[in-house]
Amino acid sequence: MIFASLAPRRLNVLIPFYWSFQQVIRINTSSSRSVLTFSRYYLRTKTLSGQTLTSELSQAFVGDLGHYDCFNHFIRLDGGDGLYFLRGTPKSSHENKRLCRLNLDGSVDVVMDWDNRGSHLMEGTGCWGPENSLIRSFKIYDPLPNKGAIQIQRCDMPTGRVLWTRKITALVTSMTMINNNALAYGLTDGTLGVLDVLNGTVLFEECLAVDGISTIPTALAANGSQLAIGTIDGRLILGNLEM
Predict the structure, then answer these.
(1) What is the pLDDT of residue 2?
(2) What is the DSSP letter of 33?
(3) pTM of the entire predicted model
């Protein structure tokens, strides 16, 4: 079982780090080194050091991959061919972000443009779609916090060409592919929905409730037409989707 965490924390003053985060991603590879663990440590001197470990605990990368903040740069993409992350341009920035891939040999590739000066995207999440596509969700920055549009979007990889866009009512907590032709998603307002991956049409959408009590889906996983839903109040819901 693979977990990802983003956990800012204050440490003892005798330790020269004041917060850190760690992200664990499973990747597809013919090598047995199928897990990358990425840690960044911010020092009191405001220098930045990052390290990536393989599942054998050997270092794949040590260095500066760029500025990070949880509003602009967090992205989790499981099942890919490397560890994907967002980096600004220049890499000290939170703007003009690029989706990058950190490979097992420590090299970094720029995969596609994520946003630009005309579309500052925040609060991102994503999953892999069919036919070499990426499905992502984001909020478009607006100086008024409640005004920014929130969307789910399918893009061609690696051109970044938008295949379809669907407006949604709240931020995405989790999303997962179902049978390679549908996308299940949960929102922070309690909505559970399913989209047709081909064109973004809504196939199903309703507010999630357990025993008549509203709740919020925070984690989704699919196995064929079976869907597992983890909720904010600690419940696990198992069900079958008929579409």
Answers:
(1) 32
(2) -
(3) 0.77
Q: Which residues pair with 100 in a beta bridge?
A: 85, 110
Q: Is 172 left (phi over 0), alpha (psi -120 to 50) or beta?
A: beta
**What letter represents residue 147's amino acid?**
K
Evaluate whether residue 203 is within a structural domain: no
Tokens found for residue 12: 């003892």
Residue 144 DSSP one-character state = S
Residue 2 burial (CB count, 10 A): 10
Q: What is the pLDDT of residue 19?
A: 36
Residue 98 lies in a domain: yes
* Residue environment code for 81-103, b if the CB has 16+ CB neighbours within 10 A, otherwise e: ebbbbbbbbeeeebeebbbbbbb
In a domain, 122, yes or no: no
State residue 179's pLDDT score. 92
Burial string for 134-155 (b: 16+ CB within 10 Å, else e) reads bbbbbbebeeeeeebebbbbbb
Those residues of the chain that have pLDDT short of 70 are 1-50, 243
Residue 134 resides in a domain: no
Give the count of beta carbons closer than 10 Å to the beta carbon of residue 236. 9
Model pLDDT, residue 107: 87
Domain that holds residue 30: 1-115
Number of domains in the chain: 1
